Amino acid sequence: MKTDVIIPAYRPGERFLKLVGLLERQTVPVNKIFVVNTQRESFERLADCDAFCQAHPKVCLRHIQAEEFDHGGTRDLAASWSDADILIFMTQDALPADEFLVERLIGCLLGREDTAAAYARQLPEKDCGTIERYTRQFNYPDRSAYRTKADLPVLGIKTYFCSNVCAAYRREVFERLGGFVKQTIFNEDMIFAARAVQAGYSIGYAADARVIHSHNYTGREQFSRNFDLGVSHAQYPEIFDAVPPEGEGKKLVAQTAAYLVRRAPWLLPRLVWQSGMKWLGYKLGRGYERLPRRLVRAFSMQKKYWNDARFFTK
């Protein structure tokens, strides 16, 4: 089956070049690598576009303007350029941990006939902080799984979990379900996964398909990221109101605290601070329509999203 990789890029650096090189050395070769870059001049600071494409013949590089970028719409645009059976979406800062990433991710996707999408395990960077390292372990365990509608009573919102940091989609199902939502602040992957689960499909988690990806967010950055998460949940109440994420968040905090008590108790105040900022950001994001626009823009990590006044009404 033909497999293409789609990567939105913005101000890419050396890590992006490494990502492309690693994708070119996979045990299951990819057909094409579609790179949708925001602003040509930002890419040319890294490499000459023509020389880059000549050096990497599988890469199809296209440029868009900043005002054209949308988390769901841009990925859908790139998907329309591909004729592959399987679409793998990645971010520019995710690195395959080995040459088996594509092979194992596809294996999980095709492991069950009802699987619409499968996402990879995210491993922490070497410089990843202790709290974030444990969060990676919590969200990306070492056991593969498939989740269906039957798991909702037990797993709740985790049933819908999927991450376009690295995830593979069956093109046929992707198109049947209408692709990603357009003009979304982010979270297009979980919104698609939720619709797939509700339509009777499963979502796969490939623990042996691994990418290196983590962030050391400050408390302020955690606030903004979770503000945007709250916005996305508020805009799709038909999906998220029935499976509120607070229970999963409390579970993560409790387990992280227990881990820190044994390993690094001096980090407990930081956990309390970051968890509080996550909670506050999420709550304010859920009620963003009641906030002044200047505060919404100040709180959000995706500030350009708010240039369109339509997003202040459902």
Describe this structure in words.
- It is built from 14 helices and nine strands.
- The longest helix is centred in the C-terminal third of the chain and has 19 residues, at about 270-285.
- The chain has helices at about 15-25, 40-45, 50-55, 75-80, 100-110, 130-140, 150-155, 170-175, 190-200, 220-235, 235-240, 245-265, 270-285, 295-300, and strands at about 5-10, 30-40, 60-65, 85-90, 95, 115-125, 145, 165-170, 200-210.
- The mean pLDDT is about 95.
- Strand 1 (about 5-10), helix 1 and strand 2 (about 30-40) form a beta-alpha-beta unit.
- Strands 1, 2, 3, 4, 5, 6, 7, 8 and 9 form a nine-stranded mixed β-sheet that branches.
- The radius of gyration is 19 Å and the shape is globular.
- Helix 6 crosses helix 12 (about 245-265).
- It is of the alpha/beta class and about 325 residues long.
- It starts with a strand and ends in a 15-residue tail after the last helix.
Shape: globular
Instruction: Estimate the mean pLDDT confidence.
Output: 93
Give the uncertain stretches in residue-range form. Answer: none
- The helix count comes to 14
Give the radius of gyration: 19 Å
The count of strands amounts to 9
Class of secondary structure makeup: alpha/beta
Element string (H = helix, E = strand): EHEHHEHEEHEHEHEHHEHHHHH
Proportion of residues in extended strands: 15-25%
Largest beta-sheet details: 9 strands, mixed
Helix content: 40-55%
Distance between the termini: 40 Å
